[in-house]
Amino acid sequence: MTTFLLVRDADHDWVGRGFAGRQPDVSLNAKGHQQARQLVERLRGQPLDAIYCSPQPRTQQTARPLAEARGLEILVVEAFDEVGLGEWQGRTFEEVRHQEAWRHWLERRGSAQPPGGEPFAEVPRRAMAGLRALLARHPDRYVMIVSHGDVLKAMVADVLGLSLDRLESFDIAPASVSVLAMGEGWAQVRLLNAVGALY
Description:
Elements: E1 2-8, H1 30-42, E2 50-53, H2 57-70, E3 74-76, H3 93-96, H4 100-107, H5 122-137, E4 142-147, H6 149-160, E5 177-183, E6 186-194
Parallel strand pairs: 1-4, 2-3, 2-4
Antiparallel strand pairs: 1-5, 5-6
Helix pairs in contact: 1-2, 5-6
């Protein structure tokens, strides 16, 4: 069994306002840097053998204080990248809220696709493939994955057998920790959206 700690990237100025997407210049804000530092204390009693991040700098900024405290390297995995948002990247929610594609995104995520972007149904497929690869690489270990809200929600939904159309029925907050236990042919959600100390 491998235990995966799923951490959402910490706070940045696009949270709650719009689509940061894969813009390379999006960094944590002051609150986000504080949340990243707080992860060191929040996870003090938690074994940890490896840290993997999305290619986006804000995930690596979230992981860095903990990686330095534990003496672990931050490794980047494309499978955990942010959703490819196409024309929505860098736009605010207000700018797209009139679009039929936005209503579809909110209500029928399983068949949704941002204009020019990635079909959302591809997100859990690639992310879970990434998890299975790490399961084989780190048997009986504790592995942190720092990714993005919708990507982590898609992974949790996949494990629970929950329709992607129900993705808005639960939250994954910035710098929150969720925990999956995973073995060959099975997975279980052990913790969801913890924002305080784990121990």
